[in-house]
Amino acid sequence: MKVTGPSGTSPAAGQRPVRASGGFSVPQGAGAASAATSQAVSSASSVSDVSALMALQGVETATERRRRAVRRGAGLLDRLDELKLALLSGEAGEGALERMARGLREERPEDPDETLSGLLQQIDLRAAVELAKAEVRRTAA
Fold it and tell me: The whole model's pTM is what?
């Protein structure tokens, strides 16, 4: 058999039946033609399946946007707590600052709930203030 690409294999010209140990043989006549047809059909259907999955993955519901926004806000609050603990223990908290800066650079999904949006804006502002304060401490030192 010869590999012809993503569509699979095709029988080579003048090929003998494939023999396995024990005397079993597979004829390469009509069975190969039906196998090639089924491979062509399955490869075409798999392409359409993949494109349908890709289209579904691109669609984000309001609930998913809200969850992502809440997860981002909770992550920023966790980084603020890490920074607070580091500063209280006398450390600079550079790791927490770096993670907080990364969290702020992430896109914040918009949510129609004004209360949630306001809360997330306050979290972003507090994180930005802490980053600015750390920058002032660095330049003063």
Answer: 0.56
pLDDT along the chain (141 residues), means of 10: 63 56 59 56 61 67 88 93 91 87 87 89 94 90 72
Q: CA separation (Å) from 136 to 37, 54, 86, 140?
A: 70, 45, 17, 6
Q: How far is CA 20 from CA 8, 17, 29, 116, in A?
A: 21, 10, 17, 67
Single-letter code of the amino acid located at 98: E
β-pairing verdict for 18-19 and 25-26: antiparallel
Q: What share of the chain is helix, strand, coil (3-state, %, to 5)?
A: 65, 10, 25
Tokens of 32: 């190969």
Residue 98: how many CA atoms within 13 Å on its side-chain side?
Answer: 4
Q: Beta partners for 3?
A: 9
Q: Greatest CA separation found in the chain?
A: 85
